[in-house]
Amino acid sequence: MGTTQLETVPEPKYWHLKTVLSDALDSEFAVGEILPNERELAARFGVARATLRQALEQLELEGRLQRRRGVGTTVAPPRVGVDVGSEAGPHTWPGAPGDAWHTEEHEAAPAPAPVARMLGVAGDAAVHAVRRSRTTGGQQVASEVLYVPTASVPGLATDVEEEPSGAARARAVLRELHRLQLAGQDRTVELGSARADDARRLDRLPGAPVLVVTTRYLADGGTAAVSVATYRADTCRLSFSDTDAVALLAS
Known about the structure:
By secondary structure, this protein is α+β, with helices and mostly antiparallel strands. Helix content is 24%, strand content 33%. α1 (13-28) packs across α3 and α2 crosses α3.
């Protein structure tokens, strides 16, 4: 057979530069050290700044570098392992014992269109949105919103007179959700870019690479809740138990 077209394509300049930079990070820089600015790096390696940015973005995606507000680009520490499941096992509701998440606040608002479709609710219907965060080694590594339709927690209403946000209200939603018999759950994982709100919470720049884990909780023959968790791609290495159902999405 002849050579395929892809095999004849030369290696992009930024990819070769990424390899050179990676070797430099190992030999010349320590974890947490700030890299020289783009102008200096581009001059050192004899490349255009656009090529340099591509290489730096790839190294950030691979977890070798971190861009920090007001600091610059620093050498990242090794990724930490984050178990996406819980100590109580894969078939548990959020907020069960062993859950590594911290419950922060509640809001009654429409879910994003893809989540509303998964939940089987109208796009303008208010649902319970429970915000949670996850910390490892003193650093917040993930931010999650759990969307719960009113039909899943009939003991609670969204149009309450009390303050509609707060950790107490969020915990009440979780307690009510635990009254249902969980039939199972499935997850999808995809690479994404940090939106402004998640970037702020995770101390990242908007557009930074993140891993988005969407979990659908099943009960009573349908979807009882959906969580969308955003993990820092530069610091996290996700792991799943062998009983977790996981689908990897490719665009």
